[in-house]
Amino acid sequence: MNSLYQKERKELRSYKIKKNGLLIEWQIDGRFKSFIMPFEKIGFNKIITSKEINPFELGLFISVFFNLMLVLLLLSDWLVKLTNDEIITSTLGIGISAGLTVWAIGLFKRKKELTLEGIEKLFFLYDKKHEDEVDKFVESLRSKQREYIRKRYMKIDDLNNKENQEYTFRWLFESEFISRDELELMLNELENRKIIKGS
């Protein structure tokens, strides 16, 4: 699985695994953002967050709802007498109801996200609808990252000094891209080249 598309209301997220990193495209509220995140910056420390209903905001919503309804009831007779038209009261009621409905949709919307923490953070929608798909994509991403990192850094470069290469090999081991046996093999090969070249 090399790509993942997620859509929720006005939010569109697209992730595509490329040869050197992850292409991320986001479209949120008409704004578009596209960039490639290099494999080196991607980590796999998982954090799952969920947005629950805030009790303070719920209390505020209920208070505003009842206060607006009370004001509408108290002012409706006065508005009808003033304008001799009952449509004003209906229009005002519909407007208040529409505003409260929009607020309620945002208030009661639950959202669950998976965050992958590395040098940079990756965010995925992670509700029941997206969970399996995201898990498969993350495993595919981990596999492609491992292939890329091993291919790019698991070699001896004659132009690079020994200390930098030792550091790189130890980083590969600590990041679990190579095994202890592979680390020892690479360090021995590096030491043998140093002896052969006489440096």
Structure in a nutshell:
This protein is α+β, with helices and mostly antiparallel strands. It has five helices and seven strands; from the N terminus they run βββββααββααα.
Description:
Helix content is 53%, strand content 24%. It has 5 helices and 7 strands. The strands form 2 sheets. The chain has a 4-stranded antiparallel beta sheet with strand order 1-2-3-4, covered by helices on one side. Strands 5-6-7 form a 3-stranded antiparallel beta sheet, with no helix packed on it. It starts with a strand and ends with a helix. The model has no long low-confidence stretch (mean pLDDT 86). Keywords: Membrane, Transmembrane, Transmembrane helix. The chain crosses the membrane at residues 56-75, 87-108.
Write the layout of secondary structure elements.
Elements: E1 3-8, E2 11-17, E3 21-28, E4 31-38, E5 45-51, H1 55-83, H2 87-108, E6 111-117, E7 121-125, H3 131-153, H4 162-174, H5 180-197
Antiparallel strand pairs: 1-2, 2-3, 3-4, 5-6, 6-7
Transmembrane segments: 56-75, 87-108
Keywords: Membrane, Transmembrane, Transmembrane helix
Overall pLDDT confidence: 86
Order of helices and strands: EEEEEHHEEHHH
| Helix percent band | 40-55%
The count of strands amounts to 7
Distance between the termini: 46 Å
What is the count of DSSP helices, taking H or I runs of 4+ residues?
A: 5
Note the main sheet. Answer: 4 strands, antiparallel
Structural class: alpha+beta
The radius of gyration over CA amounts to: 29 Å
